[in-house]
Amino acid sequence: MRLLVCGGAGFIGSNFIHHILGAHPDYFIVNYDKLTYAGNLDNLKDVAENPNYKFIQGDIIDLDQLNQVIQENKITHIINFAAETHVDRSIHGGCKDFVLTNTLGVQMILDAARINKITKFVQVSTDEVYGSLGLDEDRLFTETTPIWPNMPYAAAKAGGDLMCNAYFVTHKVPVVVTHCSNNYGPYQFPEKVIPFFVFKLLKGEKVPVYGDGLNVRDWIQVMDHASALDLLLHKGEDGGVYNIGVDNERNNLEITKMILQIMGLGEDRIEFITDRPGHDRRYAIDASKIKALGWQPVYTREKFEQGLRETVEWYKKNTPWVEAIWEKKKGEMNKFQTDLERSETQMKSAS
Ligand SMILES: NC(=O)c1ccc[n+]([C@@H]2O[C@H](COP(=O)([O-])OP(=O)(O)OC[C@H]3O[C@@H](n4cnc5c(N)ncnc54)[C@H](O)[C@@H]3O)[C@@H](O)[C@H]2O)c1
């Protein structure tokens, strides 16, 4: 397999590359990433010299460059992780980049896959496209649950999903779409909840929990997500949609308390803050379709505490990694705030 990994310098993409180079040492990987604030080549330092790995900086919106990379490297398969992923940014910072990358970017990859007769394209999407479940609802998201997203990030991802279906039906592009739940593990950008909380607690600060803290997610260890995607690259049905989850529903307060306990800290470090607008109450995944293909996660619900402990330990041990990325990207991380403040000032002076 000669695999183009789009967005491989981010959290899940870099873990996936580690997985593939370990599980299939004879596969050739091109990591094609724009290196936005969330992309970090330090995640892949240890494989940078591997002769079966190559990094090319580029934007998925650039069809000419995509075609060139695919042709020059004789690419046979594509997997796409490239996305704008931070929900708060999509709410507070304007969401143009979200639509450009998460919807239009996917369409460009679909064009590239069609033009170059790619054997398989796996589009990594999210369970957030399904909208929200109630806390007491006796229902899980299945692959036939209607797509009905509640926030701009999820809507932009849903746009990409719909394009995939349209390109499969219209152009017979052999595409597979995945809907995975919340990931945890090493190399996650420290604006996301678990590394963010660990980092704040290490600095002696409190951790901000949205609303009543009872929003529920199904937490999956990132390497389990990677093994599911590996399976789908090989065995996913063309035009198929697959949910990925581990029956590990936990609310935010529970996760926060577990992190505090692992770090030997008290619940006085919790600070409740105003809830996020459009905050979905609960996501829960029925993953029986991919399990029927033979996928088995290592970190099941019973092993969650172990997985979380290992993750917390990784961030504690790799504080220099967190601090370096935090320092390097501070300007860009604050940019979405300043964009928002600028447009609010303009609105005030216009009124
Ligand atoms: N993190 C989760 O819990 C989760 C859960 C389910 C699905 N997903 C999906 O998995 C994918 C990866 O998520 P992540 O958490 O690793 O994200 P991330 O933000 O850590 O990484 C995104 C990567 O995409 C790159 N990128 C962004 N725009 C690009 C563009 N236009 N062209 C090329 N590269 C670009 C960035 O530089 C970065 O390396 C996303 O599509 C996301 O929707 C994430």
Description:
There is one protein chain. This protein has 351 residues and is an alpha/beta fold. The protein has a domain at 2-187 and 219-248 and 279-303: Rossmann fold. It is 44% helix and 16% strand. Strands 3-2-1-4-5-6-11 form a 7-stranded parallel beta sheet, sandwiched between helices. The model has no long low-confidence stretch (mean pLDDT 93). Nicotinamide-adenine-dinucleotide is lined by residues 6-7, 9-13, 33-36, 38-39, 59-61, 81-85, 101, 105, 124, 126, 157, 180, 182-183, 189. Residues 6-7, 9-13, 33-36, 38-39, 59-61, 81-85, 101, 105, 124, 126, 157, 180, 182-183, 189 line the site of nicotinamide-adenine-dinucleotide (NAD).
Share in β-strands: 15-25%
Number of helices: 11
Strand arrangement in the largest pleated sheet? 3-2-1-4-5-6-11
Q: How would you name the CATH homologous superfamily of the domain at 2-187 and 219-248 and 279-303? A: NAD(P)-binding Rossmann-like Domain
Structural class by sheet pairing and helices: alpha/beta
Averaged pLDDT: 93
| Helix and strand element order | EHEEHEHHEHEEHEEEHEEHEHHH
Helix content: 40-55%
Q: What CATH architecture of the domain at 2-187 and 219-248 and 279-303 would you give?
A: 3-Layer(aba) Sandwich
Which CATH top level class of the domain at 2-187 and 219-248 and 279-303 fits? Alpha Beta
CATH topology of the domain at 2-187 and 219-248 and 279-303: Rossmann fold
Parts with pLDDT < 50 across at least 5 consecutive residues: none
Radius of gyration: 20 Å
Which ions, cofactors or small ligands are bound in this entry? nicotinamide-adenine-dinucleotide
C-alpha end-to-end distance? 58 Å
Major sheet size, sense and barrel closure: 7 strands, parallel
> How many DSSP-defined strands?
13
Sum up the overall morphology in one term.
globular
